[in-house]
Amino acid sequence: MSVILVFLLVIAGFSGWWLSHQRLLAKPWLEQGLAGDFIGLDRSALPTAKIGLGVFLAVVGCLFSLFTSAYFMRMGLSDWRPLPLPRLLWLNTGVLVLSSVALQCAVVAARRGQMDMVRLGLATAGLTALAFLAGQLMAWRQLTEGGYLLASNPANSFFYLITGMHGLHILGGLVGLGRTSAGAWNGARPERLRLGVELCAMYWHFLLFVWLGVFAVLAGWAATFIDICQRLLT
Amino acid sequence: MVDITPADAVPPAEVAEVELYHPHSWWTKYVFSQDAKVIAIQYSATATAIGLVALVLSWLMRLQLGFPGTFDFITPEAYYQFITVHGMIMVIYLLTALFLGGFGNYLIPLMVGARDMVFPYVNMLSYWVYLLAVLVLVSSFFAPGGPTGAGWTLYPPQAIMTGTPGGQDWGIILMLSSLILFIIGFTMGGLNYVVTVLQGRTRGMTLMRLPLTVWGIFTATVMALLAFPALFVACVMMLLDRVLGTSFFMPAIVEMGQQLQHNGGSPILFQHLFWFFGHPEVYIVALPAFGIVSDLISTHARKNIFGYRMMVWAIIAIGALSFVVWAHHMYVSGMHPYFGFFFATTTLIIAIPTAIKVYNWVLTLWRGDIHLTIPMLFALAFIVTFVNGGLTGLFLGNVVVDVPLSDTMFVVAHFHMVMGVAPILVIFGAIYHWYPKVTGRMLDETLGRFHFWVTFLGAYLIFFPMHYLGLMGIPRRYAELTDMTIMTESAHHLNSFISIMAFIVGFAQMVFLFNLIWSIRHGRQAGGNPWRATTLEWQTPETPPAHGNFGKELPIVYRWAYDYSVPGAKQDFIPQNVPGSFGLGPSREPA
């Protein structure tokens, strides 16, 4: 359970930092009226939707940390037999990076008001994300053809489970991306479109980050890294 | 004294008005409504309905335990199914949904001075997914083989094996699917509660001016958002084990002489995941109760809450600590002794912020102008019950005491006191307190007092004797104990007594339900602020609050939520949205 605890520690650190700016030491029973410095504390200047997405991403992060925790815990048992990762995953990783980059370009373009570039970025991101999902399915097929079936070994089960969960999240993101794209083509208000594109980019970057983490874990580098750290400490 | 008068000239809400959703038809107004107040009532009604199912199940269990062998239709399989579904409903579908979905939806926007939740559409979806989860759970009663009988903890491997009711039938599949749906639905609602507290607060409502009810619900929601994924992961993995034959939790196992196809799974992994959710869940239920009871006590004792800051810090501390105590549910799983020692220590540390809260409630009552209204009675009963259940928690938190008491009725008594009876007493108190705001009428006083005394005394007569049964070594989860030597004559009589009491207390809840329905039309008119309370929900122009909550202009908050019996003030309470200082000096009672 160490991965999830580290993740929660990060969340706790962030919450602590935020709370420390909320005047938790105030004595509200002595303070009346509207002090000038209270107004800054009313709410964040960030758009509400972004904060909502941020909270949701914390939940998603929690979910994947828990999968990873379970993975490491099972890995610790003596009969662990890892499965060989298909090399296709490298290509898929590249495609997903491309998708994130395209969305980042769309964000920049949206801030400058270049509609053509926004549309291009959104379309590229959508197509590359679909390509990533297709690539993941190909990788699954390669594995099943190689005899690495879902139920034949815990390592296999974890591989399909975690990559599948990640794929489902990308699929969900594509719904959001589709709605934003529909807005981009049907002439949504610029500020609304900009927010939509920014939200998509935030989600995409996060899922890319999750994928890199998942990839490192599944490939065994994460375990090696932790091993080295443990040796350095002891 | 940071007094910033004259504040009367402050212009109203610089805050951009929310684009409020306006319903156009009866369906969008009352059924597919995006108004948090309607959603709150939908949540509460659904939770109450499914809670009644759980009540009936507990009666059936008590029939079997109190009068073993008398009722043929309660087979051991059926008993396990009753126990499982009763526990699951009470913990998740009733308590979690009612506190967060019901009270959270109703009170958060009103108490922070918002027109609605920040994402009303998602909020509506949240309810419908919750309803779907409940329906899936109910459907398992009609599925072949009936609901799962694996116990509410659903421990593998037995949960998905043939000997367990529903293990190889539909029961466990429907149970896991229902939980997964519940978590998805809750996440949608939870995002709303958290972000509304962060972003929906009206002008002047700083975090340190929030009523403790909002603090409790807010912190509990944050915890739930971080804890429910663990249950989600456990459910998904067990569902794969059951449906697709993977071996996440299933070790190599022989069933009725036959080797199953599973191999290499770890049942302990499930326990870790389950309790990583399961322990925070206790506080997900308790923190809203803590918050609500603070407000009830302060309002009905006409006195400011003692140690508001300490109360807030304690809520945060409990929330954080509750994530590092989960393995105290697993002392008997064969863990390393140092591991157990660590978790026993964290468990005992959590008693400190909890004790601070109890002291502060008592000190709020100290020399207060206590009105023994029904909400106050329930609040007082909560303090007593919570202390009671908390003390047995200290027993069970220690490894050496827990090991012999594990799986006895003592554990049943402990968690029913601390997480069953105590939060439900708060729910009752809160319903008596806020019903006038929701309906505009008071609940009937006589029926209310009858309900309180029967419930309070009855709950003690049910659960207190269980401690003794537990100390005698009577195990829990057994459908029939007649042939055991530890089941003495007196233990049997005690069991029968408990069962009769359970029926009486259950009957009192019917009186309560009658009161709820009857008073909608026949209750005494309440007016806008019958308890003379300070928080914003009592200051709405209409009662019950109309769509948009606060009429044309949002209220501005000038003070904290606990200005009761302020010396020099005209009334014994000053609402949060009343400007001016009433010439108060720093001589006011510091908390």
Question: Describe it for me?
Answer:
The complex is a heterodimer of chains A (234) and B (591). Chain A has 234 residues and is mostly helical. Chain A is built from eight helices and one strand, in the order αβααααααα. In chain A, α4 packs antiparallel against α5. Chain A is flat. With 591 residues, chain B is mainly α. Chain B has one domain (33-250, 265-539): Cytochrome C Oxidase, Chain A, CATH 1.20.210.10. Chain B contains 15 helices and three strands. Chain B has helices at residues 26-31, 36-66, 76-112, 120-139, 171-199, 212-243, 267-300, 308-321, 337-349, 351-365, 374-397, 399-405, 409-439, 445-472, 489-522; strands spanning 2-3, 254-255, 258-259. Chain B has a two-stranded antiparallel sheet with strand order 2-3. In chain B, α3 (76-112) packs antiparallel against α6, α8 (308-321) packs antiparallel against α10 and α10 (351-365) runs antiparallel to α11 (374-397). Mean pLDDT of chain B is 91; it is low at 1-16 and 583-591. The interface between A and B is large, with 53 and 71 residues. β1 of chain A pairs parallel with β1 (2-3) of chain B. Chain B: Belongs to the heme-copper respiratory oxidase family. Chain B: It is a multi-pass membrane protein. Chain B: It comes from Mesorhizobium tamadayense. Chain B: Residues 21-558 form the Cytochrome oxidase subunit I profile domain.
CATH superfamily of chain B: Cytochrome c oxidase-like, subunit I domain
Enter the CATH topology name of the domain at 83-233 in chain A: Four Helix Bundle (Hemerythrin (Met), subunit A)
Estimated radius of gyration of chain B: 24 Å
| End-to-end Cα distance of chain B | 14 Å
How many domains would you count in the coordinates of chain B?
1
Hey, roughly how much beta strand do the residues of chain A contain?
under 5%
Q: What's the helical proportion of residues of chain B?
A: 55-70%
What is the CATH homology-level superfamily of the domain at 83-233 in chain A? Cytochrome c oxidase, subunit III, four-helix bundle
Spans of chain A of 5+ residues with little confidence (pLDDT < 50)?
Answer: none
Overall mean pLDDT of chain A stands at 90
Strand order of the largest sheet of chain B: 2-3
CATH class of chain B: Mainly Alpha
Q: CATH class of the domain at 83-233 in chain A, anyone? A: Mainly Alpha
Tell me the structural class of chain A. mainly alpha
Along the chain, the helix and strand elements of chain B come as EHHHHHHEEHHHHHHHHH
Per DSSP, the total helix count of chain A is 8
Q: Which series of helices and strands of chain A comes N to C?
A: HEHHHHHHH
Strand tally of chain B: 3
InterPro entries (chain A): Cyt_c/ubiquinol_Oxase_su3 (IPR024791), Cyt_c_oxidase-like_su3 (IPR000298), Cyt_c_oxidase_su3-like_sf (IPR035973), Cyt_c_oxidase_su3_a-hlx (IPR013833)
Protein name (chain A): Cytochrome-c oxidase
Main location (chain A): membrane
GO molecular function, one term (chain A): cytochrome-c oxidase activity
